[in-house]
Automatic annotation (TrEMBL):
Disulfide feature: 25-92, 27-119, 37-144, 146-193, 151-156, 164-185
Top-rank taxon: Eukaryota
Annotated source species: Chunga burmeisteri (Black-legged seriema)
SMART domains membership: NTR
Signal peptide range in chain numbering: 1-16
Amino-acid positions noted as binding Zn(2+) in the UniProt annotation, renumbered to this chain: 25
Entry's Gene Ontology molecular function annotations: metal ion binding; metalloendopeptidase inhibitor activity; protease binding
Subcellular location: Secreted, Extracellular space, Extracellular matrix
Recorded GO CC terms: extracellular matrix; extracellular space
Family annotation (Pfam families): TIMP
Residues annotated as domain NTR: 25-144
Protein family according to the UniProt entry: Belongs to the protease inhibitor I35 (TIMP) family.
Record-given protein name: Metalloproteinase inhibitor 3
rRNA processing as UniProt keyword: no
């Protein structure tokens, strides 16, 4: 009886620990522009190899990448060869496929290494909208001084002239929303920030008719 109770206690503890680890990765929704502005490195790359590194409790996955283009991080690391992430998805590790897709990858640099995870913005390149690609090339840079404030329930109001109210959470969750896919929050010549969608670089003649 004692042996059975001991087994039951160990089993329940293991089960509880497993549930805790599985639920450990929780990410706050973030607009692609904020993901861009808050990252040290933003690149377009193809994964050409991977290796499990024996460090940490679950190991770290090292992806070898072929960098196609860099959008942010020139001063920190002009060329990225490796991307590091937790080997376990429960610890926010990212699963990337080798020799199959080009990816948009954002990450932070620690001790000379680029790290990414589920809470960073990463996506297959062909799934990005035209507006998101234009944002990476030009528009997101113009909005790094602006603040995108999520709206979870109405009413929502901007509290300063440098805020854009992000309402995707009322209908979607994070990157999949319409504003995330098609709009950038940029600073106008007049000094205030507002949502922008268009085909040419913004200027002071643009009115708010394009706002969501």
């Amino acid at each position: 009886m004692t042996a059975w109770l001991s087994f039951l206690v160990v089993f329940l503890c293991s089960w509880s620990l497993r549930d805790l680890v599985v639920e450990a990765c929780t990410c706050v929704p973030i607009h692609p522009q904020d993901a861009f502005c808050n990252s040290d490195i933003v690149i377009r790359a193809k994964v050409v190899g991977k290796k499990l590194m024996k460090d940490g409790p679950f190991g770290t996955m090292r992806y070898t990448v072929k960098q196609m283009k860099m959008y942010r991080g020139f001063q920190i690391m002009p060329h990225v060869q490796y991307i590091y992430t937790e080997a376990s998805e429960s610890l926010c590790g990212v699963k990337l496929e080798v020799n199959k897709y080009q990816y948009l990858i954002t990450g932070r640099v620690y001790e000379g290494k680029v790290y990414t995870g589920l809470c960073n913005w990463y996506e297959k390149w062909d799934r990005l909208t035209l507006s998101q690609r234009k944002g990476l090339n030009h528009r997101y840079h113009l909005g790094c001084g602006c603040k995108i404030r999520p709206c979870y329930y109405l009413p929502c109001f901007a509290t300063s002239k440098n805020e854009c109210i992000w309402t995707d959470m009322l209908y979607n969750f994070g990157h999949s929303g319409y504003q995330a896919k098609h709009y950038a929050c940029i600073q106008r010549v007049e000094g205030y920030c507002s949502w922008y969608r268009g085909w040419a670089p913004p200027d002071k003649t643009i009115i708010n008719a394009t706002d969501p």
